Amino acid sequence: MNAANLAYLMRYVLAGIVLLATILLMRRALQEFSGGMRRSIKPTPGYFLIIPSRPGRPEDHMRSLPLFHTTIIGRHKNCDIRIKNDNVGKRHATIYLYDGDWYIEPLKLSHEVMIQGVPIRQATPLRNGDKLTFGGVRGITLIFIDERESSARQGLIYEVPLAEYREELQRRPVSSPWAWLLINLFAVCGGLLLILQMQAELGVMRRPILLMLAAFFLIINLYQLVLPRIFRYSDRIVIAAVTQLIYIGILIQLRLTLLRPVVMEGAIEDHGGSILRAMVSLVIPQMGALAIGLVVLPIVMAIVARTRFLEIIYPACLVLTPLLLIITLIFGGGAETHGATLWLTLGNTSIQLTEFAKITYLIVLATFFKNPPQMRAQLFFGVWAAAVMFLIMLLPDLGMIMILLPVTLVVYVVMTSEYLTTLGILVAGSGVSVLAYLLFPHVRTRLSGWTTLWEEVNDYNRQIVYGLQAMSRGGLFGRGIGNGSPDGIPVVASDMVFTVLCEEFGLIVGLCVVAMFIIIWLRGTKNMIHVKDGFSSSMTLAVSTMFFFEAALVIGGCTGLIPLTGVTLPFISQGGSSLLAKLIMVGILLGLMARRTEMVVKR
Q1: Which residue has the higher pLDDT, 101 or 89?
Q2: What pTM did the predictor assign?
Q3: How far is CA 102 from CA 64, 74, 447, in A?
């Protein structure tokens, strides 16, 4: 039996492994997401605030206010406890449950919060009977009641199942070891099949490639073991989902490099017949970016978890985002081949600064909407964002606009609840789309190819048609790694990589890839509910939503549901800049999730 036949038979095994791992991760993600949502929308039994009756006003009755898992107190109509007092901020403070204990924290340093008449500036634990004053002497005073503590003083046992369940939940591992075992089994089987199918003349490179795969395998497993021990709330489900995507990306990209004779022969010829130099030129850009990203990821995670670095660099990001786009517009290239000037050439390598501009844009977005901003601040952000979008249109990069605009809308509507304004932004976005269609031939070409997709095969839709044919050849289980026919698909390693994935690994694995991005979004949304400050909440939502929309755009374009945008599939498509930027974003997401242990101080 040759390697190709073995790969054909192993397609069932690989599809089954990925499917089982995805089911395990999705099941856990849905359970914790639904549980977190249920707990967040119901008052926590046994805890509440009391509005005391005012002296000399016997007509006033003492009233109790329920406390939720996370309770926002302020003047704004969307606060959980609304206080109609001009001395109280729109979102003044938050009271939240943490490992069975309650804490209060001002949402801004300018918001005055006192416990028993003593001002506080950071997260502080609450005790039964504490008098909480909001807005100074002219503000309002509430009393915190803990029935658990009151019962203990009377020698009674008062159980609060919700708090106990939350404490138990947070101390348990948040990922199934079976899912991790399956993901590793997929990497081992896929890597060995890839090595076996390398051409005989490339046999000298089998050992270096095997060592490289083993190094990535060890590093990623080390992260899975070490990170949760360093950071208590390190999310193993996100780590597992990203790991599965990285493994698939490694196998797909090495397959498109090592198992395509037309690519290898051309590279060997370009390097004077040297197989070693040809391999280095083909493999190092992508694998080198992955190696750098894996080194940077824990560093970024540690900085985000233990410092306020992201909040501090907000002014720099405000300037850096348009600056990166202007530099790309002036010095970038690629319009002749890709329709957009996105690549800066540095020696023998190229870099795409727009990928890092996405990160700085998200930091600005999260900073503006960490609390519902005043109208003046919203107008300032609107002008700044419009300038950024205009620069992106000049590149032109339709895909980047189609990612940033919906992410902005999601963060805006969730953090402000301004639905009418969101509708206005949607209308404005539609106008921008029409303007892009009228001004840029590249956009008209993409739309023309999409609208004629089912009528004829032409130069504008050939890429999608060939990709759909490849996906249909793969069926449910694929043809086996290395047995596909990717050479006829233009830009197959980047824009159309999802079609190769479906052809060789099968539609089942393709749907599992979609599910992995949904899992990341679910984990990000769940964490957004549990974090205690507005910036962490909005940034977590922004990063996880960006992963989801970027994947949706690529997969939608490959399947003909929407026009092709030129966006890369995170962790899987070819593109060193994209891969490095996505790993930095994973570090930011994991760091934000780990912040929950860093924000609490003792009285």
Answers
A1: 89
A2: 0.85
A3: 17, 18, 54
